[in-house]
Amino acid sequence: MKDLLPELCDRFPDKVRVVEPMFANFGGRERFGGEIVTIKAYEDNSLVREQVAQPGKGKVLVVDGGASMRKAMLGDMLAEKAVENAWEGIIIYGCIRDVNAISELEIGVQALGAHPVKTEKRGLGDLNVAVTFGGVTFVPGEYVYADNNGILVSSEKWDIN
């Protein structure tokens, strides 16, 4: 299997925006992509819990956790719920926990790192707003693609299977 991102960058150099390299791959699916759904929330994963309970076929949840390295925005129970609801992947600009369990799930998960402490549940955050990190703006309704080479965003939808 060819590496996805280098192929897309070579074929469509003017149609991709590449995220700065800072993410690690934690999910059982190393290659994923889909329509962007965003959350902006700092150390509160209430909206993550709500969204992974929704149908996610063809979608990737992009969570701007403010690069917090103090709390995990995703754990195994929420990742399992995302798998049940057919989400393609989750990108966390922040930390996750339950790394070993998440690595066995059939979902793509990329994050900055791992941290064992869970977040507060205060119901704070914004859903489906443009978020910017890694030098790229993630716009709800556009598309994100990820593999072991990194993450890229495009307004174009490509079949990656």
Shape: globular
CATH class: Alpha Beta
Helix content: 10-25%
- Mean pLDDT across all residues, rounded? 96
Give the number of DSSP strands.
12
- In the CATH scheme, what's the topology name? Glucose Oxidase, domain 1
Order of secondary-structure elements: HEEEHEEHEHEEEEEE
| Main pleated sheet | 10 strands, mixed
Whole-number radius of gyration?
14 Å
CATH architecture verdict: 3-Layer(bba) Sandwich
| Structural class determined from secondary elements | alpha/beta
- What multimeric state do the chains show? single chain
Strand content: 25-35%
CATH superfamily: Ribonuclease E inhibitor RraA/RraA-like
Poorly predicted runs: none
Give the total of domains: 1
How would you describe the overall organization of this protein?
With 161 residues, the protein is an alpha/beta fold. The chain has one domain (4-154): 3-Layer(bba) Sandwich (Glucose Oxidase, domain 1), CATH 3.50.30.40. Helix content is 18%, strand content 34%. The chain is built from 4 helices and 12 strands. Strands 1, 2, 3, 4, 5, 6, 7, 8, 11 and 12 form a 10-stranded mixed sheet that branches. A two-stranded antiparallel sheet has the order 9-10. Strand 11 (143-147) and strand 12 form a beta hairpin. Helix 2 (46-52) packs parallel to helix 3 (76-84). The protein is globular and about 45 Å long. The model has no long low-confidence stretch (mean pLDDT 96).
